[in-house]
Amino acid sequence: MTRRELRKTLSGSGRKWLKGVWEAAERYTLRLSSLSRVTSPLATTLIDDYMAKLNLAGEETRRAFFVTLVAGYSTRAVLAEPTEQPRLKPVPPKDDELEDRVKAIAGERFSSVMTLPPEVWSSYVATAAMKRQKWLTGHKLPWYVLSRERVETLLRWGYALRCLDEAYSAEPVLQEAAPR
User: Fold this and answer.
1) Count: domains in the chain
2) What is the pTM of this model?
3) How confident is the model at residue 117 (pLDDT cuts 50, 70, 90)?
């Protein structure tokens, strides 16, 4: 279904571009040691709350959700120049206030930070769902743990977390590039 959808939605060059963005985001993800001091604890809270809401448990599921959220974070890091966001006070508000902000940005305000047209974002989500579901086969979890809807939610949260880091001038911890 996903491959057919991508062929109907995007041209060959569009699919190639999406594949390139996905690969760049994956490379960025591999360089991440951790998210920033602002977003790292928030990512954990978002995932724990989401798993509780879905009545899911298990470290493998938590890891799958985290990897998908980080893919959204990495997508923002490689996809587009930061939006013109005002800088926020250096000390962020309490975690619950930040959680509400992230959910608002990832939900009804997503178009204010997303620079892609909706149909391209939809195709990107389809690509991410396909890649993440394939990844699950090696982790003994059924594909539907990362349904397309869940993948989009997690990608949006990750994307919004990166926007939050941009607003607070907070940076993730990156591994040093290996010498050649």
Assistant:
1) 1
2) 0.88
3) confident
